[in-house]
Amino acid sequence: MEFVTDPAAAMSRLAAADRFGEYVMYERPGEWVFAADPLGTVELDAGELRTVWNGKTTARAWTGSPAEVVDAALAELPHGGRDAYGWIGFEFCAYALAATGYLNQRTPLAHLMIPRIEVRIDAAGVRIEGATPAEARDIAELIAASQGSDLPVAHPVDVRPDPTGYQQRVAAAVAEIRAGEYQKVILSRKVELPFAVDVPATYRLGRAANTPARSFLLRLGGLEAAGFSPELVASVDDARVVTTEPLAGTRAFGLGADLDDAARAELLADPKEIVEHAISVQTSFAEIAQVAQPGTTAVSDFMAVRERGSVQHLASTVRGVLAAEYTSWDALEVLFPSVTASGIPKQAGVDSIFRNDHDPRGLYSGAVVCVSPTSALEATLVLRAIYQTGAGAWLRAGAGVVGQSRPEREFEETCEKLGSVAPYVVKA
């Protein structure tokens, strides 16, 4: 097939066609993958592990590390060299960080699937794997029809109403930080939507207005979601190089060149934002060092400014070479959840989140995950996203709270981040 000029339109059209069952669409630099029609799945909640292959379900209780359990369950499936795709929820971290007392037995932790069909779009064109000849023709026709099609019409969402008492919760966290309980926590707020959402159309419209590090669109296990991820939680490549990209420190972006430049200068000079970013990088460095060969952990691009849709952030990259005794899932477990979506020290920050955030986070600040048969792994942070189940649709955003935080400013930061998605929501 010829070169595709608008991969986001193609992926949105495949998802909306509703012909290929459940799916995970994942964009990484230079490549878009639509993975659909699961041959098998691995589903983990706090009380049970369920694996499905060829329609047969096996369920059992589990103990130990959820990362090890999921890794072993994937290895047991006869995947035939196929990649796995899916998500892990924020509550996945509760086991490594001694917070399981906040979970109930049905708390979802992870859901991954092995697809029958994969559609890849990159600079070489379109590759379709696993489809029947008729399905391949349908896919090619859908992609061709998507190119040059009109953008969907948005139904923008007002994100300023806040029934969650966000500023009061931030003030409570600031008091805990000043009392020495921890250094930083990311508290979030949920914005319920009063209508059902067309998630693939929202993805297409939002992707046209965002500059994510990665993006995703999925329908898996009763959950629909689309997002424009600002950063990696973790990647481990075939050379066993572990990478994470902590972002911390935020200002609005997209208000015009003069205002954007002023916000950038303010960001680079703000002591609160600089401290917040520096301690995030320090934590990420220490975490990678736990699983890396000695002397290989290093920081690059320290405190660069990266634009991500409606906001700009301070950003750094931390890398190390995975030691022989550790797996990709070990690296993910030590880096998860992202320090920029949890807190410092991480255990105390996560405890504060379970106490002070409203509702379980689920996919928000979790990760969308891709795993190769060679054990290369990529987990992208789920922020700047929209979520929908049979119970309704919602947005969610947070801000980093430190001792110098002002509740009104942190509330404004959540509004700025919600601005990456809220203007582009499309009604079902």
TrEMBL record:
Its cofactor is Mg(2+). It comes from the Bacteria. It holds the Pfam family Chorismate_bind. Its EC number is 4.2.99.21. It is an enzyme of class 4 (lyase). The keyword Repeat does not apply. Keywords: Lyase, Magnesium, Metal-binding. The keyword Magnesium applies. Residues 164-417 form the Chorismate-utilising enzyme C-terminal domain. GO terms for molecular function: isochorismate pyruvate lyase activity. NCBIfam families: salicyl_syn. This is Salicylate synthase. It comes from Nocardia rhizosphaerae. The lineage of its organism: Bacteria, Bacillati, Actinomycetota, Actinomycetes, Mycobacteriales.
